[in-house]
């Protein structure tokens, strides 16, 4: 990028999928007057069209852009999501919910789960999920937004499940309304500045060119700018996350119920998602092609459909990993162009959102990229990816399943040292590694450890200090308060019907 800019920085976004339109709209909205944004996309190539389950952070994203929740939900056929129901991961027949919420409360500076572990040792504890409002509301198919006070009703968050093919267009409409320019065309060549090596302009199939100061590569798995043009090396994580395909297929609802959670069911060669939207259910089998063929996976997902099938299974191919740097020279990648971690914990859109947030914080407002800002961006993005990676691997590795080659492989494989350290800390003393940024805090790790049968040898000795009977009574009162709170919540579908401004028109 050249001389100090008195003029706005010209940002070119390549790609009009979820990542492209999220990036373009955010920059235009949050850096007004500082940027001029042009987005190039090709209808012929199209978008990946999956990515339906999100994390609670998406709410902050939508709010920050000033988008009204009801119109967003209506446009994307969205439902609410309180967490993920994991089935058959630790052992076949067992399940647990990873909630967007806490388990109990800290007492005397000691986290709740230590009291639970002590009660469990005495044979008095009920499943940890019974101490979480988000889990119990989810299991009862009930929903209401959390309250703002500090009471029990504020101990959870929520995200959305939406139609991926509608989210991009919704963001596109929003982006265009706030000044993003859209150019339709297929990029066939990328020209670089002969002196600096920076990307200078994109050449379209019909000969038009699009020049810019900063390029955001949102070209999906193609990674046309960061990968193909700048040849940023790929760090492959397939040895830890062997799933490399998904067979995706929508089906119709068959009951009145709409679950306020995503379901992930472990399968012989991977796992299968079930994402209930307003108008249909999204299904997909994420699998490893080393262990099952595409045809078998398609047949399996077809056989698993609860309702009439709305389209034939579509196979998507991917690899787990990421570009070593997400920002190199004057090109940074957001979304699939920067890397991919499979959708087991619905993290991909979150990773795109965080990259955009970090870019806005570190944006070269004066027109010149400071390499220290670029390094900081790369450090933050790496940290986000590494945290998610370890958490995903845990779901596969912490298992007793030995019923298929796939599970034997993931159960016995070497895992990253960073994950080994986290698991040792838990196994020794029931402790969770502390960090203050990135994804997945204590409740998430506790949900998966306990849900998949990873038990610690010890727990915090301070739990012996209060009178154990008092602790047991307090825990029983919490369960009762949760039951009462859940009983007062409307059903998920009922809540949506009551707030009909959130409902998409019936086809
Ligand atoms: C099986 C599967 C399930 C997933 N589930 C989830 C989930 O539940 N939750 C979640 O958060 N994420 C999920 N994801 C990830 C999610 O789909 C993506 O993060 C998200 O859709 C963003 O994609 P993208 O915009 O980076 O790429 P794409 O949607 O592929 O968009 C790429 C864009 O680049 C354009 N383009 C490419 N080449 C050119 C060219 N030469 N010229 C012009 N334009 C070009 C294309 O036209 C398109 O507009 C899932 C992914 C997969 C594979």
Task: Characterize the structure shown.
- The protein is of the alpha+beta class and 507 residues long.
- It has helices spanning 18-30, 57-64, 69-76, 112-121, 133-139, 164-177, 224-229, 294-304, 348-361, 371-397, 405-412, 417-429, 442-451, 468-488, 492-498, and strands spanning 9-14, 35-41, 79-81, 83-87, 95-99, 159-161, 181-184, 187-192, 199-204, 209-211, 214-217, 234-236, 245-251, 262-267, 270-276, 281-287, 314-317, 321-323, 327-328, 331-333, 339-340.
- α1 (18-30) packs parallel to α6, α1 packs parallel to α9 (348-361) and α9 packs antiparallel against α10.
- The N and C termini lie far apart (48 Å).
- The protein binds flavin-adenine dinucleotide.
